[in-house]
Amino acid sequence: MINSNGKILSEEQAKLSVFNRGLAYGDALFETMKTLNGKILFWEDHYFRLMASMRILRMEIPMAFTPEFLEAQILELLTYHSSDSNSFRIKFMVFRNEGGFYTPQTNDITYFISVNSLDADLYLLDTTEYKVELFKDFYVTPGLLSTLKTNNKVLNVLGSVYAKENQYDNCLLLNTNKSIVEALNGNLFLVKGNSIKTPPLEDGCLKGIMRKQVLETLKKSPDLECVEASISPFELQKADELFVTNVIQGIQPITAFRKKTFTTSVSQSILAKLNMMVRLS
Under CATH, which number does the domain 131-280 receive? Predict the structure, then answer.
């Protein structure tokens, strides 16, 4: 079932116009969220990121778009989803209403919400082989737009095709300054000794919700120092550990980059703290 602008429809009933601006121009935003036992994890962070992103794209935010209203819309959809799972993946998409070409005729918006079951409730650490490579065919442009979850994800699609064709589990994206920005599906963290680095938003990485949770967790760890700083490709070979973060997987350790292999001890420690946060939330 789909929530289409407040109406619960079957997948067959939920249709998009060929003039939809998200389809025609990528004029859309989305939030990917995880629910557990009828609760949206990190809901406040998701809500404020969505509102800020809509303002940046000059979309008209409906008066009804309060945290309580949108949360209720998401949770209502879950009641129509038949599954034994306690955990779900939610995609909340907002697009500007159709009309116009590059210049829209209106800034009013429409939204839809979709839901898929997840196998695991809490975050699990997958330590099986996970190999990555740099994707250098195209580059991320540093700037505010690159930090948003817009519908313009062709770079990630091409990187995913490259990874599949070359039997990699993921790829790392570079910006036009040749600094590493992020992975195809999440933010990147690099561990060297007791120091942890993650690219700053100014480099063009996604303003990830799980990235924020990890940064806040690390601030409370006296034995670890975390900095937001540009990462050079040369640093990968010297790192002790690399991991990718997103709200669905939590933390995904990278086990190999070319001939270099990595440990997972810091990933395990952070993930245990994240799961504690989830249990207490």
Answer: 3.20.10.10
Which residues are CB-neighbours of 155 under 8 A, at least 6 positions away? Answer: 138, 140, 173
Structure tokens at 10: 């079957």
Weakest mean pLDDT among 224-228, 231-235, 240-244 = 224-228
- Classify 2-117 by CATH class: alpha beta
- Residue 33 burial (C-beta neighbours within 10 Å; 0-12, 13-18, 19+): buried
* Angle made by CA atoms 230, 235, 236, in degrees to the nearest 5: 110
Indicate if the alpha-carbon torsion angle 119, 122, 127, 130 is positive or negative.
positive
Grouping H, G, I as helix, E, B as strand and the rest as coil, residue 203 is: helix
For the chain, give every domain's residue range: 2-117, 131-280
pLDDT at residue 229, as a whole number: 97
Q: What are φ and ψ of residue 133, in 5° steps? A: -145, 160
Any long-range contacts for 8-15 (C-beta under 8 Å, 24+ apart)? 8/76, 8/77, 8/80, 14/112
